Amino acid sequence: MNNRDFTKFVMYGAREASESGFTHIHEQIEALEDALNKANPGLVFDLARTLLESVCKAILSERGIPYEEKWELPKLFKTSLDALQLVPSHVIREEKANESIRKLNGSLQTVVQSIVELRNTYGFASHGKGPDFQGLDKVHAVIVARTVDTIVHFLFTVHRFPFSEPEKPLEYEDNSVFNEYVDEENGEYVRINVLGDILEYRPSEVLFYLDPRAYESYLQAFIELNKE
């Protein structure tokens, strides 16, 4: 085996997207895999662009975002990125994370632009070639195919499976009805005499801060009992 031989290439990420809902890209995936396994880099570049275009159009269509058929891939891709929530909202609120996300978006767009340029210059179906034309090697097609596979899986995943938001921490002030119930059942205040000073605490406050797990458990039970 020489250094240009590869094991059979499979687009695992793109296939997962296809099997999970984007069924229309299945034939494109198979064609790209076949082109790579038959060492046709130019056709790989053509199909890589086509596959990304199909995924972007599917995302925009499902989200009700209009696009024009004449749009080139970079514009389709940017519009798709703008439509997606790429990270959880609580991370977006962090300034440092925001800057990193901006760089990530820019890097992905640069990668896609590079794929387009490779296709335009070395694609199988691009402009006619002169007799001295030298195409790229299979190793270049591999990196393009693997990159597109990763991007397709990423786009599909954040499109179809949005990030779950972290549960809001339990706040005492958010449960006034339950708090009033606990206070009425146990007297208005718990009083503590310290060096002649009388400290007063509501029973619900004592329960919340002393044993928050018990507070939460009884709160859920209270909510269940008072459902209509």
UniProtKB/TrEMBL annotation:
Limits of the Abortive infection protein-like C-terminal domain: 74-156
Pfam families: Abi_C
InterPro entries associated with the record: Abi-like_C (IPR026001)
Protein name stated in the entry: Abortive infection protein-like C-terminal domain-containing protein
